[in-house]
Design a protein that fits this description.
globular, Annexin V, domain 1, mainly alpha, 2 strands, 10 helices
Amino acid sequence: MINLHERHAIVAKNAIFKERGCVNYKALIEIYVGRKSSHFFLIQQAYQSKFRRHLDQDIMSIEPPHSYQKILMAFSASQMAHSADVSVHIGKCDAQRLFQTGEATSRGFKIDEGVVLEILSKRSIPQLKLTFSIYMHIYGHSYTKHFKNKCHGEFEEALRFVVKFLKNSPKYYAKVELY
């Protein structure tokens, strides 16, 4: 019987090296976002021990490149650098920056990926949850609604999934088919 961290390492490996070249980014997001930073560290150690490779390097080596890779690397930096302490002030500032990330263009709406990735990489998961809650409180709608129908780029779709998972992972798991 394998321990939970080894199991998650195997799930990550299978998500990256899935048959037919399809990467299961949603499973990777669940591992990166749905675990405490101490557990995530143990998953990374188990991955390296079991497969003699670094999880982050395997994710970055996925071809063709995908927006999920950028988001996963931001979360990886976040997991390593920050504690679970949360600040309402930081949440308000980040919510305001997220609101301002969208700019009207002649083709509709565009997200400033750099700002979003900076926030994702510098904040803990609990801080991000608070930020998205504050965003909803201040602006009267979720961050994903801010660009839901206005843009359909790869980054925006990936970000939409991540934010939905962050805000309410039990709701996400309730909708996912078990296999």
